[in-house]
TrEMBL record:
InterPro entries: KH_dom-like_a/b, OsmC/Ohr_fam, OsmC/Ohrsf. This is OsmC family protein. It comes from Chryseobacterium panacisoli.
Amino acid sequence: MAVTVKASLGKTKYYTEVTAGENKIITDEPIDKGGQNKGLNPMEILATSLASCTAATLRMYIERKEWDIENINVEVELENFPLTKRAVFKRDISFEGILDDEQLKRLHTIADACPVHKILTNDIEILTKFS
């Protein structure tokens, strides 16, 4: 499944409108980086992708199993280490509801099966062209 997004940045420093089909978000940089902090920065968007995909994947599985879980909370911290070309995603998942150890073990496997998690743990290639 291919996904296409378009980012458009004018002369207002770092204020970027990103569209995907009919949906739009705003990204920006923090004030200390010269932006206006009017939207999530690109690193936050990357972490958001993992957090939201994990939550949705878990919800789909929980609904299929008919488990009584009110809320799924996923917190992702992304730390980038440019000098070593390493990034670390720390993902903390909690549930509002009662789950036993076996269910939690299964949900860990399901969380790792979310599409964004799979992409981030596979080889990634970026092909760039100027037009």
